[in-house]
Amino acid sequence: MQKEYPRCNIKRHFRKIIFVLLTLVLFLTSCSSELLPQVLASATQDTVLQVKEENADVFVEIQRNIDLVTKLKADVQDAQLNNKPVSLNSIIKDLETVTQSYEKLAGQRDGIRQDLLGRVKKVENMQKTVDAEIKTLQEREVDYTEQLRLVNDHDPDIAKTRKESLTRAIKYVQSQIALWRQFNNVQRDIVIEMSGIQRTIDSFLAMIESTGIVFREGLNLLYLQRDINEAIALFASDIPTMEQLTQEMEKSWDNLDYLLETLTGVASIGKAISQ
């Protein structure tokens, strides 16, 4: 039997994961690319963006389904308040789209889980990159500081330029170190959340599958209601209509007689020739 988890805890935990990842993305993209070390640009930023972008289609599709069902509810409520007719076929068509979407995603659950866990593993492994990069930058800062201390050119202009360039280089290296440390703090928050991410992902995928089942059976109910409505319409509307048309078709025989008597015979032919 599949283990169930409280929905409120699942949603809160999942929102926290997404918040941390989005914070990480915003933190990276808000910094000047000139200040980002090559490793950060090629590994850290790319990996985080992949986590966000490659699964965005799943999240967007689910949100689109939720929004469509919310809109259908609002449309039906508006129709009830204003005594307007509701198109059952139109609602069935939209709900069929939503249901098929959930059923498709449920069929892809293993692939979605594998991709999510794979991306999460990459983010987890970035901790080693952070430590190594900070160490390299610290060594570079020491080297620049020593070069600055030893500047001694006989040309004062050259010496001034050299000192200013080294001073600025040290400033930029220190900014990079600060950037990595800030990232490291965010990374630690992510690692803390890793302990529950398997449960969060499994709960998320179970919810997709369960939603597909619920919507399919709800849609089956609407299909049944439509079939019943059409069957009842045979007695409530179609039979009286057939009776009325039967009487009117019989009356039309007299109209046909009049047309035939008026437009046929010798007199009618002579009149037509004279005209």
Question: How would you summarize this macromolecular structure in one to three sentences?
Answer:
By secondary structure, the chain is an all-alpha fold. Helix content is 88%, strand content 0%.
Can you walk through the features of this model?
It is a single chain. The protein has 275 residues and is mostly helical. The protein has helices at residues 7-29, 38-54, 56-81, 88-107, 109-150, 156-194, 197-263, 266-274. It has one domain. The protein is built from eight helices and no strands. Helix 4 runs antiparallel to helix 7. The protein is elongated and about 130 Å long.
Describe the structure using short key phrases.
single chain; 275 residues; mainly alpha
Mean pLDDT: 78
Low-confidence parts lasting 5 or more residues at pLDDT below 50? 1-7, 16-45
Termini distance?
92 Å
Task: Give the percentage of residues in beta strands.
Answer: under 5%
Radius of gyration: 37 Å
* Pattern of helices and strands: HHHHHHHH
Number of beta strands? 0
Helix content: over 70%
User: What is the overall silhouette?
Assistant: elongated
In total, the number of domains comes to 1
Count of alpha and pi helical runs: 8
Report the structural category.
mainly alpha
- Report on the biggest sheet: none
Give the arrangement of secondary structure elements.
Blueprint: H1 7-29, H2 38-54, H3 56-81, H4 88-107, H5 109-150, H6 156-194, H7 197-263, H8 266-274
